[in-house]
Amino acid sequence: MLTVWSWGFLLLGIATALAIAVDVSRRPQPMSIMNVTWPITGLYMPLIGWWAYRRMGRAPTGSQQARQHHDHGHGYQGHHHGGDKPKWQSVFVSATHCGGGCTLGDVVTAPIATATGFALLGSTVLGHFALAFVGAYLFGVLFQYLPIRAMSDSGPGAALRDAIKADTLSLIAFQIGMYLWMLIALHAWLGEMDAFTAPFWFMMQVAMLVGFMTSYPANWVLIDRGIKHGM
């Protein structure tokens, strides 16, 4: 039964990610890294990810942008897509940005950990967690670094330092949430960390959602203190 539920939610996540990806291809994001982040969000937020993208991240089409530019050029002052979001939405999108890098790192490293039997201190579970953290950290910092470089005059060194400052706390918070859920799942349902089974990835899907929730307060603090910009 767990396998059936697992495939159901995994396929729903894949369908959500594909729907977002198709829409993003027609409506590219102002910040290019979000063209990757939003589909990844759909993977671990089936259906909810589509709602969040439509509500908080969907960019206008080229013709809509042209109309907005024309209206503003004639003194139109109305609200338009892409204006200031409520703070909770800005933090939400920032958390998806962090979650995108973390999720990609986890997806890449989990099969490696299973295939190699990598262990830390004699524990394959710790081995999984260690590789997941390294992968998540590398991709997470990269997801911060690329837009900083693209949208500022910072040199490579300064941009890397800013990316590390902006991502470290939220990434740690995300991974802690993920680890806690996977430990529960390991003892309650999985029995072992096997990245070549559907139940493992279903539990990872839930773990990433839990990680998103634990990273949300961290992103709020980082934005409040000006370490990270709201999105």
From TrEMBL:
<feature type="compositionally biased region" description="Basic residues">
    <location>
        <begin position="67"/>
        <end position="80"/>
    </location>
</feature>
<feature type="transmembrane region" description="Helical">
    <location>
        <begin position="36"/>
        <end position="53"/>
    </location>
</feature>
<feature type="region of interest" description="Disordered">
    <location>
        <begin position="62"/>
        <end position="84"/>
    </location>
</feature>
<keyword id="KW-1133">Transmembrane helix</keyword>
<feature type="transmembrane region" description="Helical">
    <location>
        <begin position="202"/>
        <end position="223"/>
    </location>
</feature>
<feature type="transmembrane region" description="Helical">
    <location>
        <begin position="125"/>
        <end position="148"/>
    </location>
</feature>
<feature type="transmembrane region" description="Helical">
    <location>
        <begin position="169"/>
        <end position="190"/>
    </location>
</feature>
<feature type="domain" description="DUF4396">
    <location>
        <begin position="88"/>
        <end position="228"/>
    </location>
</feature>
<feature type="transmembrane region" description="Helical">
    <location>
        <begin position="6"/>
        <end position="24"/>
    </location>
</feature>
<keyword id="KW-0812">Transmembrane</keyword>
<keyword id="KW-0472">Membrane</keyword>
<protein>
    <recommendedName>
        <fullName>DUF4396 domain-containing protein</fullName>
    </recommendedName>
</protein>
<dbReference type="Pfam" id="PF14342">
    <property type="entry name" value="DUF4396"/>
</dbReference>
<dbReference type="InterPro" id="IPR025509">
    <property type="entry name" value="DUF4396"/>
</dbReference>
